[in-house]
Amino acid sequence: MKICLKVNIDKSNAVECAKDIIHLLTQNGAEILMKRDAREHFEYFEGITYYDHDNDLFANSDKAITVGGDGTIIHNARHAAENNIPIVGVNCGRLGFAAELEPSEIKTLLRLLDDDYKINKRMVIDVTVVKKNETKTYSCINDAVISRGQLSRIIDMYLYVDGERTTHYRADGLIFATPTGSTAYSLSAGGPVVEPCMDCVVLTPICPHSLADRTVIFNGNSILSVSAESYTDNNKSYLTIDGQIVVPLTSEDRVIIKKSDYVLSMISFKNRNFYRQVSEKLKERDE
Asked: Which helix (H) or strand (E) holds 236?
């Protein structure tokens, strides 16, 4: 079995945990595949196959493990979904909301070799940026955010639902979250907690300039589109996808959000109540 192992090499505890995982899995017959930029930390291991690009790495893997924080999981979940392989996270970060295991539980990963786990299907959204001379679509696991970037200035935006103009927003920005991403930025901006296996898109305004503008939950089959009034060079807006991909926007651009054909398969070893997990994790964040 070929297992993709993605590690946040900026975290020393994640590197050490990954070494333990490599020992554990290779001794039980698994083949480890990794990104070449991590090679210097694992050179003394024999038999690891390295790839230069994430797409090649995931395309040649049967399953994926991430070792790091929630950002590591979300970044790599996109590649897992696009290549139709299941993924599981080992938490070496602070909160680890999206992770299934802690470092003390890595022996549980042996169950991957026997397919002894459950799969939780998660909705992915396509975020398409339509520019004058180019149209590009990105897969989004957590959220897509339209804002002024580092400048806290109001932006005027128009929302279209299934091609019909419905709402005008004056706000610092808009967050379009998947159910998986409902417990991230959207929650901090006042949005609801949504069970991750649901099929919907959560729209949460950021600091809206109206008491009437609140979070709206759209059916997963809805096609949402956003356009904005003109920007000046000093007031550019940006689309940020999963906190990692940043696309500058102009007044001529449109952003379209709809359900993706891709589905994220999250590996689960435990029978956990989602709402209890939310309560426990958010309590940890507050402490």
From this structure: none
Q: Max CA-CA distance within the chain?
A: 61
Rounded to the nearest 10°, the torsion over CA 239, 240, 245, 248 is 30
Tokens 């049967």 belong to 62
What is the pLDDT averaged over residues 85-105?
89
CA separation for the pair 242, 2 (Å, rounded): 27
Query: Which one-letter DSSP state was computed for residue 201?
Result: E
Please give the Cα distance from 16 to 68 (Å, whole number). Answer: 11
Measure Cα distances from 110 to 30, 127, 143, 156 in Å. Answer: 9, 36, 32, 52
**Nearest Cα residue to 191 out of 280, 180, 219:** 180
CB 182 within 8 A of CB 198: no
The closest alpha carbon to 33, from 63, 3, 56, 7, belongs to 3
The helix/strand/coil state of 254 is strand
User: Known catalytic residues?
Assistant: 70
For the beta carbon of residue 56, count every other beta carbon within 10 angstroms: 13
Band the pLDDT of 251: cuts 50, 70, 90: confident
- In whole angstroms, give the CA distance from residue 239 to residue 146: 5
* 3-state DSSP assignment of residue 190: coil
Are 20 and 37 within 8 A, CB to CB? Answer: no
- Tell me the percentage of the chain whose pLDDT exceeds 90: 75
Give SS3 for 181. Answer: helix
Instruction: Give the CA distances from residue 112 to residues 42, 75, 109, in Å, rounded to whole numbers and listed in that order.
Output: 22, 21, 6
Q: What's the pLDDT at 232?
A: 52
Are 140 and 258 spatial neighbours (Cβ–Cβ below 8 Å)?
Answer: no
Contact 73, 265 (CB under 8 A): no
Query: CA triplet 178, 108, 142: central angle to 5 degrees?
Result: 10
